[in-house]
Amino acid sequence: MRRIGMVSLFVVLLALPGLARAQEPAPEPGVVDALKKQIEALQAQIDELRARLSEIEESRTAKETPATTPLLNPDISVIGDFLYTGGRTQPSVVPVSDGGGLTPRALELRELELAFQAPVDPFGRADVFLTFTPEGTEVEEAYLTVLSPHSLGLPPEVTPRLGKMRSSILRINTSHTHFLPQADIPAVARRFLGPDGMSQPGVEMQWLLPTRSPFMELTAAAYGGSDGAVFGTNQNYLARLRSYWDLSDTANVELGISAARGMLDPLGERTLLSGSFVYRWKPQKAGAYRSLWWQTEILKVADAGDLAQHPLGYYSFVQYQLNKEWYVGGRWDWTDIPTDLTAHETGLSGVLTYFPSEFTRYRLQLGDLNQPELGQFLRVMLEVTFMLGPHRAHPF
Amino acid sequence: MQRIALSFIIAALIVTPARAAKLRVVAATTDLASIVREVAGDRVEVESIASGYQNPHAVDAKPSFVIKLARADAMVRVGLGLDQWADSLSENARNPRILRGGAGYIDAAVGVPVLERPSGVDRSMGDLHAFGNPHYWLDPENAKIVARNIADRLAQLDPGDGSAFQQGAADFSKRIDAALKGWMAKAKPLQGLKVISYHSSWAYFAHRFGLDVVGFIEPKPGISPSGAHLNDLISLMQRDSVRVIIKEPYFSRQGPDKLAAATGAKVVEMPPSVGGAPGVDDYFKLIDYDLDQLLAAVK
Questions:
Q1: For an interface test with B, which of A285, A289, A354 has the most B Cβ atoms less than 10 Å from its Cβ?
Q2: Lower CB count within 10 Å: N or C terminus of chain B?
Q3: Distance from A173 to chain B by nearest Cα, in Å?
């Protein structure tokens, strides 16, 4: 009897939803469409979530190990520097090794720099810069920076660099062509260090002195010399003290003194002394739109002996940022001619620079120059620089 | 008698355990420094490199920062490519602890759900961050993750205070949860609010508080707006009735003012970092201040 009752109840329960539906009014057509759309939207969300889930699951699953991995490739950058030189642009009348003369070409790909930069291992990083110029291909710099000096048994305040490096005898000498503040290098650097600057194989030790303020860094270096450099292929040595003060949150000053010594045939021992002064101003809030950079350097040769010569030269430039993209500046050059102390070179240049982005630069430079080889003349330079790849920031 | 007293003093000095020096923490930004303070209190010394009203993308790697980092036990980085300027600072600091992989290198972004991660990137896209939008700290939920990251690493560096750091992170998370309830309630009038922002600094903030960022004054990240781009934005703002333009303190007013003049929208200066406006001196005040600025604009 109880079984018959249960079956009847079950039948009634099954029939109830159908009866209830039969009593509901038919939904309006618009409601059905809206429900369909909602279902479709929900289905799309489910599909998207499923896809994301499978992506996550896939990323957690070990893949077949490839023979090599692009993740271990170094950062590779390419920097192109085009230069047009107008005005009195006679072919160079002075051998390049004497550091004189103008570029013999009116329009040229002055330099293509190829940079490879990456950590080598947990203890250091390597930076390699190859340059392709109309004169040929050169290793501009290639050095290992030891970031964990304890791995060489050195104190932690010391940073060794080994390889081929641009010497810091002048601050401007450490700048690659594309990073120069003007389209050309100052006359004193060109006359004393050569048109391509001074880059030599050697060992550098940079020691951060234990001062809280100012920042003080001592550099001691030994170089092997190189063709065309100021010391020829003779060994030479450098010491540099660099100090830095924050005058305020927006202004700072950097002072540096350097001395380099080596043999120069046939004069004998040669000593170069230099000093640098840099003032920077940059408001923190509007730092992307306004800044000022004033830099001055002086270099003097202090040779000893009967054939002693003491030529010197200096430059001073100012660059002011007008807005995010535009900079205006000027440079004054004065330098003795190292091979002829009776003559000297002067120059006054005005520079207008436009950066559409961090990676492209257009620069117009007008110069009123006076060189003993060419006399007084006006020169116009138009420089276009582009940069591909993740080139690391230059040192401050 | 004097000798006895002296003996007691010497004995007390010997017996009293020497308090270890505080950990020195340098944070890349003021926001991270603020969260370090929340986690560690006065158990650590903390300072930041970028100031609150400075563009965190472009900070000069001054040598004076090198001195700070040379002495640091830990450095807290924003990560996701925002503070790449800090790489050269840490490499020059002669301090292996704070180099990538070092015991004191703290990437605050680890574990944060990243927005706007591009599937591919090249420079035609401007200064687009290859790892995704790096302004994640502006979502308070992410601040909790940052606090945990900091606490975990500080606990490794100073196990003696480890439990205090973990407790600090937990307390911070609770305070964020409590504050978030208030912030969400406060932000109700902002739900669905269409805004223009100068740079894509507000993706996480908008995601949390329901803003709809419909355009940027920068046509591409890091690129200044052209007249044509501003005209396009004016059309967009008129069509979509956009009433608010968000500008970070370190960007020019020129573009935002032009849009405001043409559309009647209000320019709201919102600091994305602690210290970016007077009185905004911790993380909670930052979120409060930014919400208040927006609410005042839509009233």
A1: A285
A2: N
A3: 19
CATH number of the CATH domain containing A216: 2.40.160.10
Cα–Cα dist A339/A350, whole Å: 28
On whether the CB atoms of residues A271 and A305 are closer than 8 A, the answer is no
Top-tier CATH class for B23-183: alpha beta
Options 1.10.3210.10, 3.40.50.1980, 3.30.1130.10, 3.40.440.10; CATH for B189-298 is 3.40.50.1980
pLDDT, tens only, A53-97: 776 665 555 555 556 666 788 999 999 999 998 876 444 444 333
Residue B128 near residue B221, CB atoms below 8 Å: yes
A150·B252 Cβ contact <8 A: no
From the CA of B64, how many Å to the nearest CA of chain A?
6
Radius of gyration of chain B from its Cα atoms, rounded to whole angstroms: 22
Query: pLDDT per residue over A334-383, tens digit each?
Result: 999 988 888 999 999 999 999 998 889 999 999 999 998 888 889 999 99
Q: Residue A2 is which amino acid?
A: R
Q: Any CB–CB contact under 8 A between A182 and chain B?
A: no
CA distance A363 to A373: 26
The answer to whether B249 and B225 are in contact (CB under 8 A) is no
The interface pTM score, or ipTM, of the predicted complex is 0.82
CB-based contact, A16 to chain B, within 8 Å = no
What burial class does residue B187 get, using C-beta atoms within 10 Å of its C-beta: 0-12 exposed, 13-18 middle, 19+ buried?
Answer: buried
The H or E element spanning position A246 is: strand A236-246
Residue A176 falls inside a structural domain? yes
Considering only CB atoms, B64 lies closest to which of A244, A325, A358, namely A244
Do you find a cis peptide bond into B56, omega within 30 degrees of 0?
no
CB contact under 8 A, B96 and A150: yes
Distance (Å) from the alpha carbon of B12 to chain A's nearest alpha carbon: 33
pTM for this entry: 0.81
Nearest CA in chain B to A123: B96
Please indicate if any CB of chain B lies within 8 Å of the CB of A357.
Answer: yes
